[in-house]
Amino acid sequence: MTFQSDFSYETRPVRVVFRPGAAVTATPGEAARLGLRRLLVVCGSRGETVARTVADALGDTCVGVHDEARMHVPVEDADRAVAAVRAAGADGCVAVGGGSAIGLGKAIALRTGLPLIAVPSTYSGSEMTPVWGLTERGAKRTGRDPVVQPRSVVYDPRLTLSLPVPLTVTSGVNALAHAVEALYAPDRSPLVTVMAEEGVRAMAEALPRLAADPKDLDARSRALYAAWLCGSCLGSTTMGLHHKVCHVLGGTFGLPHAETHTVVLPYVLAHNAPAAPQALAVLRRALGADDPPRALWELAGSLGAPRSLAELGLAEGDVTPAADRAAGEPYANPREVTPQGVRGVLRAAYEGGPPEPGLRTEGDHTPA
Ligand SMILES: NC(=O)c1ccc[n+]([C@@H]2O[C@H](COP(=O)([O-])OP(=O)(O)OC[C@H]3O[C@@H](n4cnc5c(N)ncnc54)[C@H](O)[C@@H]3O)[C@@H](O)[C@H]2O)c1
Ligand SMILES: O=C(O)CCC(=O)CC(=O)O
């Protein structure tokens, strides 16, 4: 494979602590390192019990628990969270939970500049990125700002033991999607390629073990390690067609985040494959499969994940509007983004059959 000899790579300051039990044993120390004395703990309503355990460990340095995180960070939720931070006189936040809790912590950081500590409980990878997302009037906006990148990330595999198998699988594929798109991103680099390959290999190995035994702490550790790597890939590169499609389906059509990633990924990869041979070569090695889109489709489906957008509740009549919306904004992708091309991808994802190599579409002249 040709060496990529033209790239730039930026290292952002983030401290990572990885240890079973670290949510309780390491978070207070991370806060102290950052000189924080008045922390607001942010979580979702279903993650409140775990978040309270972390809050208790923080003792007097915790000034409150805000449990209103929801998927895609509606802008009014961000407004309320910022008001809570100001009312409490907080000097920083600790987000405990999945991508939604971390997303709300990032929204606070974006508005206030306050430092964030992340204690992730899913495989979203958000903790390793400077990417924020906010949803307003049915549209999800995303952006990058170093201020939202958590300053410290506390990985505690024990926190993920309670993650139900369906979310384990779909969240794991959300992480895989970060690595897949990083492999063909215009700003990828050799280091990103190494992280993506290792992340895909580790996650693809861990997910079947977790479906068989969700309490396997070693497999939980491996999956969280993979999420770290895949999140780092997302943090260092520009997102392509896959992420854009998922943001439209989540932000405008209300589809669940990780499940949508799981359904869509094989079809976008099949579509982009002819224009991304190097990425495909890495994925073949990492997955040990000749046909990576098909292998991803089989992996998720064999572990019980949903296979079609129809199953996720997308109305058939929304396929074309969603595709046209996703195609309507310019963004980086190895293959030219056209309304016909995206409609072909979404039609296939709506139906949920095996992804066809190259996923050719009407009026499309890319060699398959
Ligand atoms: N900015 C980024 O870099 C980035 C990256 C990936 C995802 N995201 C965002 O993250 C959000 C999705 O995050 P998510 O997929 O982690 O879902 P989530 O945070 O919404 O969690 C999903 C559900 O699982 C529950 N849960 C979380 N951890 C659990 C655990 N260990 N045990 C039992 N239940 C648990 C939550 O309470 C929630 O009900 C979306 O808004 C997405 O846009 C952002
Ligand atoms: O924080 C967000 O909502 C935007 C980034 C994101 O969601 C990455 C993903 O699609 O997994």
UniProtKB/TrEMBL annotation:
Gene3D superfamilies noted in UniProt: 3.40.50.1970, Dehydroquinate synthase-like - alpha domain
Naturally occurring in which organism (per UniProt): Streptomyces africanus
Chain ranges of the Alcohol dehydrogenase iron-type/glycerol dehydrogenase GldA domain: 13-157
Keywords, in A-Z order: NAD, Oxidoreductase
Family under the similarity heading: Belongs to the iron-containing alcohol dehydrogenase family.
Ranges of residues in domain Fe-containing alcohol dehydrogenase-like C-terminal: 168-350
Residues covered by region (Disordered): 324-368
Pfam families, alphabetized: ADH_Fe_C, Fe-ADH
Protein name stated in the entry: Maleylacetate reductase
InterPro entries: ADH_Fe/GldA, ADH_Fe_C, Alcohol_dehydrogenase_Fe, MAR
